[in-house]
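Follow-up to my post from last week.
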Amino acid sequence: AQSVAQPEDQVNVAEGNPLTVKCTYSVSGNPYLFWYVQYPNRGLQFLLKYITGDNLVKGSYGFEAEFNKSQTSFHLKKPSALVSDSALYFCAVRAFGGYNKLIFGAGTRLAVHP
Amino acid sequence: EAQVTQNPRYLITVTGKKLTVTCSQNMNHEYMSWYRQDPGLGLRQIYYSMNVEVTDKGDVPEGYKVSRKEKRNFPLILESPSPNQTSLYFCASSLAGGTAPDTQYFGPGTRLTVL
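User reply:
Got it. Predicted complex:
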């Protein structure tokens, strides 16, 4: 069965420090991987996706993610966190044969402190 | 502006009173989908639609209905809501729903409370 794990409910980081939000996945075949962000009282906003090719994917707002096939991971990273990055982050994997159905992780709340 | 819209944004209702949450997209997308978001569970797919008049069940379809009579609209219907359907609902759309890994774009969400 396809699944996504986000092992941390919350990540705390000081403004200006690098941040990492972890994601591991399990899926049959090659994965398509996505990161979305949810700000309070807002919908999900697309950040980036991995389809194929370069393992380092760059996305919106300075975020990037590294695909690691051997570790089945797709961690979200940013070199220097901003207070405005504080939000709920979701990792999602495209289910094999699922006609664009996304399997989501439970979400990780990122808190960036001044 | 390209967007997915949902109405209402907030709804409080009582058990058994039929309700409809509307979803509309202006991007000419073929694929539309409904998800519900619950704490600790992430988002789970309720129903999806590959195109007009083509719909199918997702992972948690019980208690819900959908229809796709027009390409831009994909309403979610709760014919007899129950308290366990209290949740945050998201509509999403993408260009196509086949094997291509198109990005799904989400609406702002509808927070539903069933008393």
